[in-house]
Amino acid sequence: MRTARRQTSAARSMHGIAEPPPLENGDMLTATEFLRRYDAMPEVKKAELIDGIVYMGSPVRAKQHGIPDSHLQCWLVLYSSQTPGTAVAANSTTRFDVKNVPQPDAVLLNLTKSGRARIGRDGYIHGAPELVVEIAASSASIDLHRKLEAYRRAGVREYFVWRPTEAIVDWFALDGETYVPLEPDANGVLASRCFPGLVLDVQALATTSPGF
To answer: Which SS3 state, helix, strand or coil, does residue 33 take?
Structure first.
């Protein structure tokens, strides 16, 4: 993909076609223009459009993000491997509408006829995945504010946020037009409403990575 992008860029230059301007934090763009610029920057690994504003990814720390991310991916992949009709996608650009193109840390998709999101011919996810997972640095993160509202409006049925440095898990379920927090049972286990059998021991997650 990166080679193809470079060849396209070279071809544009040879034919005198102007390259798109680079993405910058804070740019206000439409989804189409955002993707045009993002596609022309293969060196950029993380960029999102939330409410029409561009957010660029910062360097990723292993303890605060990389290790927690690997644990959540394993959790979802294990579930999906035992659940036909589902698929996990990590760090995949997802098109909601003209102002929102997030790139969640992970999504769990229902690929049966009842599913709400699809992988388009362009390779992007189109529509609202049933479950979106994000790893947030703190309660001040965009994940618990602007993104939460964008996911709610798009109709993401469940939104999971893990704050490793605070050892806090927020798992929201869409109830009408409002997100309500899922509550753990007597054993401290949270259970998905969308995906039967997808459960999480909150205390076990908090202790999976020593030193958190």
So the answer is: helix
